[in-house]
Structures are given as structure tokens and as C-alpha cells.
Amino acid sequence: MSNASLASQAHSDVPHRSVIIVGGGQAGLSISYYLKAAGIDHLVIEKATLAHTWRTQRWDTFCLVTPNWQCALPGHPYRGDDPHGFMKKEEIVAYLDGFVEKLGAPVLEHTEVKRVQRQPDGRYAVATSNGDWTADHVVVASGGYHTPIVPRMAERLPADISQWQSSAYRNPRSLPDGAVLVVGSGQSGAQIAEDLHLAGRKVYLAVGEAPRCARFHRGRDVVDWLADMRYYDMPVEQHPLREGVRDNTNHYVTGRDGGRDIDLRRFAQEGMELYGRLDDLRDGCLQFTPNLTANLDNADDTYNRINASIDAFIDRQRIDAPPGESYQPVWQPLRERTSLDLAASGITSVIWCIGFTPDFSWIDAPVFNGRGYPAHTRGITPQAGLYFIGLPWLHTWGSGRFSGVARDAEHVVDEIRASMTASQAAPASLAA
């Protein structure tokens, strides 16, 4: 008996679906939307509950950093009365709940996928905590932010210092009294530092290399201008950095209170303590790289460069818009401080906001590079029947966001449909 026949016999008692989607966030549900429209049987397998990340891994004052009009899940665009506002956490959850209810996807919740492996017969064996399945196609929609990054030096912090990862932070009241060290100044770090600062907490911020952008420029939201400039339609292969853009840290800005800039220099004027990158802990003192000035200057350069590109667009299109101006620093570090006495600072909490690493170790497929990132072209991997969706810059800037995931999902499902059509036609062709 052939290997394929043995595999087929072994699978005979295992439930089968044409497509299994791993992950029940907006990406996986968008795939389900197009599969349902195409009449293709499928199953969404979710480790927790649908869209649980938005419910459980966001702080209380979290809100979108892109305008509501960019929320464009398939068949479920934003229809509220504030398209240029920024939905808060509970409003985002309600928006997603509406999508879930409208979609009615076939879902298996509270089920962890343990292994995905292609079998000799071409099917995929999908082992889960709630039984085994097989599928002709597997779409990985679990995102790329799996394992929080916390440096080993965290193990050497005093036991009486409370440590949190950004996904576990909720509000200033949940932290012990005392000063807070926020490590990292990407979107999460900058917004959490602001949240604590506005609550009157003493904040020390280890500033990284994240860029920043303006909220508004020349009378409009910067996102509106960039949309008109078709930046959000640019495929990754046309970006100046090519695939390297996937490693970029997101620009920090906020939609809080109707949207505004996040200016770390202004926070410093108001009492926030800024340092460069956190490097080590020695003899009770935190050690920092002397790169605060460079990091602030580079973030401001990006801010001004984006605005200058908008200015050039306005000029080319001869648009009547209010005048703009270049950002001028409101504060400068007098010197680079490279050491901070931990006990003397009064720091009682540390919040790590330095990102996540992907973990696709449960996928047995030769499609990953040395950093554990899947090789793909617009979500289509070199291994037949295996796809990814919802990753940053999978295809465009919006691929990992509400704005662009529908386009990516439709493309992946079109590829699945083409593969199924070719597979059904193959026997007839061979017979001929």
C-alpha cells in the first residue's frame, strides 16, 4: 500500500474541512467572510475567544491611532457618526462583535492548535487541544505578536519592584504607588507613558528609536493626506525599504481626546524623565546608552519629513490648504544621562514595551527564515495549501490593520479557489 493510501486510511476517522483557519481575530474572520461567500466549507480554530486580544490585551484608555473611517472589515465598514474620530477600547470591541454576529463563522473556541503538518497525501494534519482535524488548506491568522520581549536583566531587578509587559498594563491605579519606569517608546510605550503622566505619576522613560508623526497637518489628519497620496495602497515590493519595512517600529501618535501629537520633549518639560536605551543593571544602578538626543532628533526628523511630503503633494495638486510649519524642539537634553540609581529614583514598577517575537514553532513547514518569519508573497507561501494573513506589511501598510486586511483576505481566498478548481480539473486532464 502506498504512503498516500496509508495516510488516507489513517485520516478516515478524523473530521475534515477544505480550509482550517488558525486564529479568530479580524484577519481570520475576514478569511471566513470570503470563504462563506464562495461556498467553501471551513473552520476557524481560536485558542481563546473571538477577537479576545482586543478585550484582554489593551489598557483601559486604549483607542485607535487611525481614524474610524479606516475600519473597513469586509461587509462591515464603520457606520458611526464620527468617521474622523478614534474609537475607544469598548467601541472597538462593539465594532468587532457586530462583525462576528453578522458573519456567523463556524468556530471552535478555547482550542489551541498544537501542530500543523502536511501529510504524504497532500492534506494537512491539524492537531489541537480539542481533537485532530485534516484540511486541504490552512490559513494562519494568528498574527505576528506572540511572545513578549523581556530582557534577561529583568531577572536581576529587586523582588519588590513590580514588573509588567505592555499587554498586561491596564491603568495607573493597578500599579503600586511610586515612580514608574517605562521601557520603550513605540506606540504602546509612548501612549502608556502618557497615560501615567496624565494621571500624575512620576515617569521615567527609556526612549528607543521609534519614529513619530503628526496627528494633524495643514488642516487635516495626516492619515487623510496619506490616503489621498495613495501611500496605503503601496505594496511592500514598491516601498523603498522593500521587505525591511516589516521590521520598522510603528510611529507614535495618539487618537486620545480626539487625537493629538505625542511630544516626548513636552513631557520632559512637564517633569517626565527621559533617558536613552536601557542597557543594563549594575550595582543597583540602571545603565543607559547615551543616545537620547539622537533618538529624539531622528523621531522629529521623520515627523517633519512626513509633513514635507504632504506639503509637496499639496503644491503639486494646487490644493487650497491652511499653512503648515516645521516642528521646532521645545526641549533639549542638557546632557546624556547614562546611569540612574534605582533605589533613589523611587521606581516601584517597570513596564516593558519593547515588542513581541513571532512563534510559529507549531507549524511544521519549510517556509521560515532564520528569524522565524514566513516566506510568502502576499500571504501565499512556497508550500502548497499554506497561507498567512494579518501580518504587518503582508502586502501593504494596512495588512495588519482594519483598513487593509479585507483586500488581503480576498486575495488569499481567490488563491484557494483557484487551487481547488485546478485540483478538481486535474483528473479530467489526466484522463484526456
Automatic annotation (TrEMBL):
Q: Which residues form a coiled coil?
A: none
Top-level taxon in the UniProt lineage? Bacteria
Q: Which SUPFAM superfamilies match?
A: FAD/NAD(P)-binding domain (SSF51905)
Write one Pfam family the protein is assigned to.
Pyr_redox_3
Q: Does the record's keyword annotation contain Oxidoreductase?
A: yes
What UniProt keywords are attached to this protein's entry? Oxidoreductase
One GO term in the molecular function aspect is: flavin adenine dinucleotide binding
Q: What is this protein called?
A: Oxidoreductase CzcO
Q: Source species, please? A: Paraburkholderia solisilvae
Native organism taxonomy: Bacteria, Pseudomonadati, Pseudomonadota, Betaproteobacteria, Burkholderiales
